[in-house]
Amino acid sequence: MSAENSGPAERLHISVRLQAHEVVAAIVSDEHNFERGIAAAREITEQVLAESGPEAVSELAVELANKVAEALERFATAYGVPVNSLAEVWFLE
Question: What is the DSSP letter of 31?
Fold first, then answer.
């Protein structure tokens, strides 16, 4: 289904996925200047807030969390560890 032929919910989902990609890409794009990547990610998030409101920022956060969870599941499977244990190490230690 193309964006032109999709409904509003599908277009929003595609938009949120693209914005989530932009935020992550901003952080990883310049390995030599982490602060610049973080600043760019904040700018993208602020732009989402200004253009689409807090609900869109919430959707962005959910999309990012979902993608992190998917990545953690892949790593956990590859290394044979429980995903909850891996998430605890990544976020709490």
Answer: T
pLDDT tens per residue across all 93 residues of the chain: 444 556 665 666 778 889 999 998 888 886 668 888 899 999 999 999 999 999 999 999 999 999 999 999 999 999 999 999 999 998 887
pTM: 0.77
Between CA 41 and CA 25 the distance in angstroms is 8
Tokens describing residue 21:
């990609």
Which token pair is 36? 């610049």
Element (H, E) at 69: helix 54-79
d(CA 75, CA 52): 33
| Sequence spans of domains, the chain | 3-67
Helix (H, G, I), strand (E, B) or coil at 67: helix
